[in-house]
From TrEMBL, chains A, B:
Domain called GST C-terminal: residue spans: 81-203
Protein name: glutathione transferase
GO molecular function: glutathione peroxidase activity; glutathione transferase activity
Membership in a protein family: Belongs to the GST superfamily. Sigma family.
Start and end residues of each GST N-terminal domain: 2-79
Top-level EC class: transferase
EC number of the protein: 2.5.1.18
PROSITE patterns in the cross-refs: GST_CTER, GST_NTER
Keyword terms: Transferase
One Pfam family recorded for the sequence: GST_N
Top-rank taxon: Eukaryota
Annotated organism of origin: Riptortus pedestris (Bean bug)
Catalytic activity: RX + glutathione = an S-substituted glutathione + a halide anion + H(+)
């Protein structure tokens, strides 16, 4: 069994999909969470100055989505052929487009501009994306692609606490097919166990 | 042979990697370029309201990176195993992080803020990324990953005109390993032919 060490801030956000996938694989992993004040010392040692970073048998890899796809292959959660793998990739990249819409106001330092940007996002793009994702989950029987569980579903649910915190409202309450998607993921025994035992964090 | 129809603005930008890969595969494709004024009519018919969109035998797929990875698989440009595929995925997602740094000022509507953001980006993050990418190309013998040509190299070179236009300077002049990378891609006969015959566009 490979050894895994994950390095990230003490939050879920972009590391949580990796934690979900390692849990799904029933792999032990070191879940190293550094405090914000340590970041200036850690950042220069990270490839491209970013986290999450995963060490697999001491070899360092980065990029949340790329790592999740890699682990998804180990878990046989990448669809049955290249076409199905493409549908999963499309869903995850579109989730990141949605995340950009939300992050665009969330990380705006100017408070007045932040309010304005948030208002604009919530008035149009946010419900647009959520409705489209809900439709996708409806068409795919409670999953994002191919009518079956994939690493994309784990990704979507793993980052949802982060997105919901930035949005200020829980989209699983409003969108029933996204709720089905969430339930399909959180009721997987290995994921359920991870969620019950993971450290508390707001994001 | 499948039929392909690509739909995008009349520019290179995020569609050009798909055009590179279809050219590399020596596939004929309809390269449908709509004018900006047509966009409001086209947008509602696009999945998630975005382009590029590719129709493969009439089936619609979207997301530039996801499509390029899929075509990269057809072209056998995805590395020899899952680990190599991961290295390529990391490079491409990091390229998108870099693109976000540049797009963050380029698409800023407020002119004063745009100047300020551009100055900050050019003072730090932009050379940081370019030096890291140059180092990566050096370590990989003029490629981004695994010391061999991949769809990631085609992606990097295909979007470079767009990035260079937004940056206002040609990084291939300054970074010799990125220049090697570019030359490795543009000297592939099928890519060379595409570049010589493609429509002119600024981005």
């Amino acid at each position: 069994m490979p050894t895994y060490k994950l390095t990230y801030f003490p939050v879920k956000a972009l590391a949580e999909p990796i934690r979900f996938l390692l849990s799904y694989l029933e792999e032990n992993f070191e879940d190293y969470r550094f405090e914000r004040e340590q970041w200036p010392n850690i950042k220069p040692n990270m490839p491209f100055g970013k986290v999450p970073v995963l060490e697999i048998d001491g070899k360092v890899v980065h990029q949340s989505t790329a790592i999740s796809r890699y682990l998804g292959k180990q878990a046989k959660l990448v669809g049955k052929d290249d076409w199905e793998a493409l549908q999963i990739d499309i869903a995850v990249d579109t989730l990141h487009d949605f995340r950009q819409v939300v992050a665009n106001y969330w990380y705006e330092p100017d408070e007045a501009l932040k309010s304005k940007k948030k208002e604009e996002a919530l008035a149009g793009p946010v419900p647009f994306y959520l409705e489209k994702f809900d439709q996708l989950a409806k068409e795919n029987n409670g999953y994002l692609a191919n009518g079956a569980l994939s690493w994309g579903d784990l990704y979507f649910v793993a980052v949802s606490d982060y997105l919901i915190r930035m949005l200020g409202s829980d989209y699983f309450e409003k969108y029933e097919n996204l709720r089905r998607l969430r339930d399909n993921v959180v009721n997987i025994p290995s994921i359920k166990k991870w969620i019950e035992t993971r450290p508390e964090s707001e994001l």
